[in-house]
């Protein structure tokens, strides 16, 4: 078990998952910004259109997070195979502290992956416990304190279901455990009404409520809500995602309200039904605010139906949008300061070696152009050291500079100069070059590992053969020992027999 938690594969998965969790924060921020812009641009649009757009954005979020996890896992695997750490570019990360922080995120995930995932898992278990409590309550509602309503109400539900083209059989029951009309089930949906609601509300209001619940059934909102609950359990820490999820729930209710209004044309009755829910506190704590500072969703629905106006951003949400855009702009500026680590190398020209043999003048020219951009001081020091080494190497070859005659050398003696990189050693590789180098090294390591494994298999087979041969030799030695014992006994018998015959023949 201890080896399981310390295995490299598990550590790679933990690092990738922790990176995905951290990246989901800014991805949720972008999701919230896009959703807020959609809300501002669709003030006069039907609720169904807004719901489709926002729900599509919400569905895209876990897909992007899964892709982020896949990329992080591939990068972690490549880094492990190559045996290299996360590449850094210190010469270009001193512009701002935020840039340094952004550069260190992968290293932070690598160092604290276990702690991040453990902390997330602890809260994840709490969220799962809350969901289990919710499902327990649903099972209680489905099994306890159920009453059959009057027959004409079931007939009304059947007629309204046909009117909405709901092909499923919908059952209507009264429950003593629920305080609000709810729909439970997908294949066999059941509408649970609080006890007394059918008798205390006018028939027109009850019909509007039933149409609203039947709209949920026709739209398959039960399954969508389960998906939302699962996603909210995983990304419980992501404020942007949670806010967009609340917007989706709100627009879902608006869509069902529009369906009820379209088939009843009783705007007043639906508003009065919602007001009655508010007056008698039927919704209780089941309705939470979509965003800190917003009004109750039930009151928003009443205002929307009465004023025929879609919900837009309130003051707190607008402030959140502006702050989010500011953070994104700041992060964009931060990442623009990040340049490839090999930019400074482009300002150093390569050594130019011109060798003229057969009695002609040999000339070697080395040009070092000052860098236009500021580079790291270590790059200059490394370039100076390599330049001195090149000069010493030229001196050892007995060549001359500036038309001074020297003994001729063969091409093989001058060849090493062409492979000296005076400046290249002091300048870090670009990310693409480093990646190619790491990939090549990883391939070499993999081939070497295959060779070592093949050699280990051969050694194991040879050891098995040696063990079998030793077993056969030991068995043969045992047989020889037994035969020697038999021969010794037989020799003893022969000796006694010979002695007896000799005594018998003696007069």
UniProtKB/TrEMBL annotation:
Stretches that traverse the bilayer: 20-41, 53-73, 116-138, 319-335
Q: Plastid: is it a keyword of this entry?
A: no
**Would the keyword Transmembrane be found if you checked this record's keyword annotation?**
yes
Q: Where is the composition biased (Basic and acidic residues)?
A: 435-507
Record key words, sorted: Membrane, Transmembrane, Transmembrane helix
Signal sequence residues: none
Q: In what residue span(s) does the Peptidase M56 domain sit? A: 33-305
Region (Disordered) residue ranges read: 398-507
Q: What is this protein called?
A: Peptidase M56 domain-containing protein
Q: Look up and give the organism this protein is from.
A: Deminuibacter soli
């Amino acid at each position: 078990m201890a080896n399981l938690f310390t295995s490299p594969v598990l550590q790679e998965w933990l690092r990738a998952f922790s990176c995905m969790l951290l990246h989901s924060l800014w991805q949720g921020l972008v999701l919230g910004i896009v959703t807020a812009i959609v809300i501002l641009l669709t003030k006069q649009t039907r609720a169904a259109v807004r719901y489709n757009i926002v729900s599509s954005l919400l569905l895209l979020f876990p897909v992007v997070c899964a892709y982020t996890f896949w990329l992080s896992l591939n990068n972690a695997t490549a880094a492990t195979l190559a045996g290299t750490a996360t590449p850094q570019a210190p010469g270009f990360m001193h512009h701002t502290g935020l840039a340094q922080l952004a550069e260190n995120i992968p290293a932070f995930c690598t160092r604290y992956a276990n702690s991040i995932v453990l902390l997330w898992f602890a809260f994840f278990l709490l969220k799962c416990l809350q969901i289990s409590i919710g499902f327990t309550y649903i099972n209680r509602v489905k099994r306890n304190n159920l009453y059959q309503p009057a027959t004409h109400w079931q007939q009304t539900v059947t007629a309204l279901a046909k009117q909405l083209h709901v092909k499923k059989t919908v059952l209507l029951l009264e429950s003593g455990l629920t305080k609000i009309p709810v729909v439970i089930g997908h294949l066999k949906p059941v509408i649970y009404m609080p006890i007394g609601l059918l008798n205390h509300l006018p028939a027109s209001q009850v019909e509007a409520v039933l149409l609203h619940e039947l709209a949920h059934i026709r739209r398959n909102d039960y399954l969508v809500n389960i998906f939302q609950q699962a996603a909210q359990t995983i990304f419980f820490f992501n404020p942007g995602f949670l806010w967009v999820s609340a917007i989706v729930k709100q627009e879902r209710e608006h869509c069902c309200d529009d369906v009820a209004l379209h088939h009843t044309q009783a705007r007043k009755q639906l508003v009065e039904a919602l007001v009655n829910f508010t007056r008698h506190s039927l919704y209780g704590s089941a309705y939470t605010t979509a965003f800190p500072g917003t009004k109750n969703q039930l009151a928003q629905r009443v205002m929307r139906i009465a004023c025929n106006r879609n919900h837009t951003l309130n003051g707190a949400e607008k402030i959140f949008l502006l702050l989010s855009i500011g953070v994104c702009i700041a992060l964009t500026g931060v990442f623009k300061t990040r340049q490839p680590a090999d930019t400074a190398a482009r300002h150093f020209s390569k050594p130019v070696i011109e060798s003229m043999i057969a009695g002609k003048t040999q000339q070697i020219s080395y040009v070092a152009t000052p860098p236009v951009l500021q580079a790291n001081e270590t790059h200059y020091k490394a370039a100076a050291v390599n330049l001195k080494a090149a000069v010493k190497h030229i001196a050892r070859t007995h060549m001359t500079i500036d038309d001074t005659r020297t003994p001729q050398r063969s091409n093989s003696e001058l060849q090493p100069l062409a492979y000296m990189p005076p400046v290249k050693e002091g300048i870090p590789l670009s990310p693409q070059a480093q990646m190619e180098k790491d990939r090549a090294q990883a391939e070499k390591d993999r081939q070497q590992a295959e060779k070592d494994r093949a050699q280990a298999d051969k050694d194991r087979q040879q050891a098995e053969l040696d063990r079998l041969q030793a077993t056969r030799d030991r068995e043969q030695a045992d047989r020889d020992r037994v035969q020697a014992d038999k021969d010794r006994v037989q020799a003893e018998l022969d000796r006694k027999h010979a002695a007896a015959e000799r005594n018998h023949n003696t007069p």
